[in-house]
C-alpha cells in the first residue's frame, strides 16, 4: 500500500469528523471543532507554501534562458511590494487600500468585462462548436432568459397571460438545476467515500 | 435537523460503502453491463495520444476551491485524472502541467504528479514546478492561466474542478490557440459557460465519470455503478416526497 | 494629487486589460502579472496576519494555552513547510492526508445534508395542502418530472448487447432525451444570467473610462 501512515491519518480523521456530523455527541463535536481549527491553520500554511512556489516559478522564469519571461518581473515587484507593506502595516491598514481599489478591483472588473465579450462571441459561434438541436435549444433559452432578465416584460401593462407564461418559464431551469445538483451530490458522496475507504489517496507520494 | 435524517444518512453511507467494496471485487465472468460511450472521452484519449506524439504540453486545471470545502469533490476528481494523465505522458518531452487557484490543491497536484512519476520509475524527471498556483483569487487564478495557454505550446486543456464563469477566459485562450478542451465543473454557472465556449463540455455529474472512463482503477468503475443505483433511489425518494407532500406529512 | 495618481493607474490598468479583446499584447501582460503579484502578496500578508499568527503562534506563546494540543498543528505545519525542500517534500504528505480526511467528511456531509435531503424535501413542498393550488401542483409536477428526467439522462451504465455495444433500455433513452431538454434550458438560463451580470460590470468599466477621460483631459 502507498503511504500507509498518511492513509491511516486520512481515514481516521475523516471518519471521526463524519461521525461527529451524524451523531451529535458533545465529545465528537469538540473533536470536530479542534480538527477544523487545525485544518484552517494547515490550509493557510499550504497557501503560503504554494505562494512561495508561485514566486519561485516567476523567479526561475526571469533567470532561465529556456523559459525566459520578462513580465515575471512585474509579478515579483508587485508581490514583494505588497507583501512587505502588508506585513509591516497590517493588511487592513488604510495606506494599503489604494492597492486594492486602484489595482485589484479595476483589473478584476475589467476581466469580468472581457468575459462579456467572450460570452457574446461564444454564443455567436456556438453552432460551429456543436451542431445539434441541444445547442439550438440552449441558444433559444439564453435569448429568452436574457429578455426576461432584462426586465422588458415587467411593465404595468403586461398581460396576465404573459405573466403566467413567465411564471411557468421560470420553473423550467429549476427542474434541470435540481436534477444536476442531485447528481453532483451523488458523485460527491461517492468521491468522499472513496477517500474514507482508502481507495483514492491524492496525498500519497 | 430531524432525528431520523442522521440515521438515514448513516444507512446510505454504509450501503454505499458495502456496494463499493462488493463491486470493486474482480467479477467471476464478464459483466453484462458496461459504461455507455461518451464522445468527449474518446476525443480526449485521442488528443492525449496526439499530444504525447507531437511533444506538445497538456494542461490540467483543478479550480480554486479549498480541499476542506464541500465543493472540493470536483477537484479530487481532477487529481485522479491528473494521476492517470501524468502516468501516460510523464516521459513526454513536455510533461503535463497542473494549475490551481488554492494552496492545498497546488500541493496535492504536486503529490499526485510525484506519485505518478515514482510509479513509472521516473522520479528524477519530476519537477515540482509542474504543479502550480496561478493566482489566489478566482480572477487572478483565471488570468494566471492565460500566459500558459499562449506560451507553453499547450495542445490539450483539461478543466476539472470547481470554478465560476471566469473559466471562460481560459476557454477563449484555448480557442485562439487551437487547443483541445475538455471541461467539467460542479458549478452550474461554470457549466453554462463551458457549454457555450468549449467543444467537449461534460455536463453535471459526467464530471464524476472521468476517472472511470480514463480507466484509472476498478474502484472508479464500481463507484459509477453505485452512483447509477443511487440515482434510482433518489428518483424513488422524489416521488415519495411528493406523495408525503400530498398527505401533508412533509 | 495622490488620488489623481491612483485614478490614473486604475484607468491605465482598465484599458490594458480590455485591450486583450483585440489580442494578447504586452500591456495586458504587464497588467495581469502586476495584478497577480499584488493579490498574491496581499493574500500572503492576510494568511500570516489573520490566520497563522492569531491561531497558531499566539496560542503557542500564551502561557495559559494548552501548548501540548497546539504542538500537533505546529508539527503538521512544519511538515508542510518541508514541501519547500525537494528532498524532504515527502514529509508533507501527512498534513495533506489530514486535510484530505477532513475534506472527505465535509464533502459527504454537504452532499447528504446540504443537497440530497434538502432537494428531495423541496420536491414535495409544492404538493403540500398549504400550497395546494392548480398552479402549485403544475409547478410541482413540472419540477418533479424535469428533475427525474434530468437524473435519468446521466445514467452511465447500460446492458452489453451483441453487435451494438453498451445500450440503455429504450424507455431510459426516451426519458434521457426529455432530460436533455431540461438541461439545455437550464444551462441557457444560467448563461443568460452570467451574461447579464458581466454586462453590468462591463458597462461600469466603460462608464469609468469615460469619466476618467473627462477628469484627466486638460
TrEMBL record, chain B:
<feature type="transmembrane region" description="Helical">
    <location>
        <begin position="6"/>
        <end position="25"/>
    </location>
</feature>
<keyword id="KW-1133">Transmembrane helix</keyword>
<dbReference type="InterPro" id="IPR046642">
    <property type="entry name" value="DUF6754"/>
</dbReference>
<feature type="transmembrane region" description="Helical">
    <location>
        <begin position="229"/>
        <end position="249"/>
    </location>
</feature>
<dbReference type="Pfam" id="PF20539">
    <property type="entry name" value="DUF6754"/>
</dbReference>
<feature type="domain" description="DUF6754">
    <location>
        <begin position="8"/>
        <end position="247"/>
    </location>
</feature>
<keyword id="KW-0472">Membrane</keyword>
<keyword id="KW-0812">Transmembrane</keyword>
<protein>
    <recommendedName>
        <fullName>DUF6754 domain-containing protein</fullName>
    </recommendedName>
</protein>
Automatic annotation (TrEMBL), chain C:
<feature type="transmembrane region" description="Helical">
    <location>
        <begin position="178"/>
        <end position="203"/>
    </location>
</feature>
<feature type="transmembrane region" description="Helical">
    <location>
        <begin position="96"/>
        <end position="117"/>
    </location>
</feature>
<feature type="transmembrane region" description="Helical">
    <location>
        <begin position="30"/>
        <end position="53"/>
    </location>
</feature>
<feature type="transmembrane region" description="Helical">
    <location>
        <begin position="137"/>
        <end position="157"/>
    </location>
</feature>
<feature type="transmembrane region" description="Helical">
    <location>
        <begin position="65"/>
        <end position="84"/>
    </location>
</feature>
<keyword id="KW-0472">Membrane</keyword>
<protein>
    <submittedName>
        <fullName>Uncharacterized protein</fullName>
    </submittedName>
</protein>
<keyword id="KW-1133">Transmembrane helix</keyword>
<feature type="transmembrane region" description="Helical">
    <location>
        <begin position="6"/>
        <end position="23"/>
    </location>
</feature>
<keyword id="KW-0812">Transmembrane</keyword>
